[in-house]
Design goal:
CATH topology of the domain at 3-199 and 376-383: Ribosomal Protein S5, domain 2
Oligomer: single chain
Structural class: alpha+beta
CATH architecture of the domain at 3-199 and 376-383: 2-Layer Sandwich
Largest sheet: 8 strands, mixed
CATH class of the domain at 3-199 and 376-383: Alpha Beta
Mean pLDDT: 96
Bound molecules: alpha-D-galactopyranose
Helix content: 40-55%
Low-confidence stretches: none
Shape: globular
Number of strands: 12
Order of helices and strands: HEEEEHEHHHEEEHHHHHEEHEE
Distance between the termini: 12 Å
Length: 384
């Protein structure tokens, strides 16, 4: 059993003074390519990582959820299970649980009260979807505990709707990979049809995550603004979503939109193409091609979508240079901080680490955290 699972069980025992009967777990994710394409009905290619959220639980025979958040200094919350759920004024972490509970109640399903202890090891604000891990682990727990039989993709959709309840109009990528990830594979997800293709991480390649330790926050603000800009571009182009547009269509309507809207759309349209090409590169183990695509993705996020920050751009260049100026590296996640992802040969890891140690702190005034991981399975539930 992983550390977080054991910790959740132990915390449950000491807080509720009894044994938990259920254990739910869901991982965070790293997105290899396909950023801000999900809410444009496009393509993404994330994989689940070896860090996640564990919840130890037991039915409590009431209509209340009683919750202990081990990582939030042992903070607690208690809320009534109802469609008329209110957000907690200050406990953001609990609002994910309130949102998931409300969304399941909205389906007229009967949710039973539980005592739960939550423990996670996805670094917060690192762009690795700690919130999706929490939503999916909790949604799947409710589904099993209340015998609701909700399938994992629907759990993911509930998690996405919970984000909207809280204030972030996110896409479906994070919750889907957290729910449906497969060991050793990245997931090529069509965010319109939700069609899934599990693509093996090529043998002899490793996924490295580097947390810039500049925290990102996506609720509201810049994230929702990007989404609005994309929707505006789609409407000018006369398409349902940017997934349906081509560069030719965009060029033809260039004079009808401002430069910002044009560049936002150009990022999404070209990024969708890069994801589909990256699937092929992955299948063939073509690291050079992957490097070209991932760096192009980074530049597009930096110049057209404007969601990178200097610390992240600097980190990408440090890693690229350590890899001889052609590494497969880019920012991952929603942006404005968070992490960088690289795909590389295991024997290259040490020189990348050395370069980061030597150069990043000077540039960013803080240290980066290096996270070596592998592609993992999605959500699990067990009876204890
Ligand atoms: C966040 C959102 C996702 C996705 C990414 C950007 O992680 O939750 O839905 O839009 O940003 O690709």
């Amino acid at each position: 059993m992983t550390d977080v699972k054991t910790k959740a069980i132990e915390a449950f025992k000491s807080h509720f003074s009894c044994e938990p009967t259920m254990l739910s777990y869901a991982p965070g994710r790293v997105n290899l390519i396909g950023e801000h394409t999900d809410y444009n009905d496009g393509f993404v290619m994330p994989c689940a990582i070896g860090f996640g959220t564990a919840i130890a639980a037991k039915l409590n025979g009431t209509s209340l959820m009683r919750v202990l958040a081990v990582d939030i200094n042992g903070d607690t919350d208690e809320f009534l299970i109802t469609k008329d759920m209110l957000k907690h004024e200050s406990k953001t972490w609990s609002n994910y649980l309130r949102g998931v509970t409300k969304l399941i109640c909205d389906k007229n399903l009967e949710v039973k009260g539980m005592d739960v202890a939550i423990c996670g090891d996805v670094p917060l604000g690192a762009g690795l979807s700690s919130s999706a891990a929490l939503e999916v682990a909790f949604g799947n727990l409710i589904s099993h505990a209340s015998n609701l039989n909700i399938d994992l993709q629907d759990i993911a959709l509930i998690g996405q709707a919970a984000e909207a309840f809280i204030g972030c109009k996110c896409g479906i990528m994070d919750q889907t990979i957290s729910a449906c990830g497969k060991e050793g594979c990245a997931l090529r997800l069509d965010c319109r049809s939700l069609d899934k293709l599990h693509v093996k991480v090529p043998q002899g390649l490793e996924v490295l995550i580097v947390n810039s330790n500049v925290k990102h926050a996506l609720v509201g603000g810049e994230y929702n603004e990007r989404r609005e800009q994309c929707e505006k571009a789609a409407s000018i182009l006369g398409v349902k979503a940017l997934r349906d547009a081509t560069l030719e269509m965009l060029e033809a309507k260039k004079s009808l939109m401002d430069d910002t809207t044009f560049r936002r759309a150009r990022h999404v349209i070209t990024e969708d193409d890069r994801v589909l090409e990256a699937v092929g590169a992955f299948e063939q183990g073509d690291l050079d091609k992957l490097a070209t695509l991932m760096y192009a993705s980074h530049c597009s996020m930096r110049d057209d979508f404007e969601i990178t920050i200097p610390e992240i751009d600097g980190l990408v260049e440090i890693i690229r240079e350590a890899l001889g100026g052609k590494g497969a590296v880019r920012m991952t996640g929603g942006g404005f901080g968070g992490s960088v992802v690289a795909v590389l040969k295991p024997e290259e890891v040490s020189k990348v680490k050395a370069a980061i140690d030597e150069r990043y702190e000077k540039l960013a005034g803080r240290k980066a955290t290096i996270i070596e991981t592998r592609a993992c399975n999605g959500a699990t539930f067990i009876t204890l």
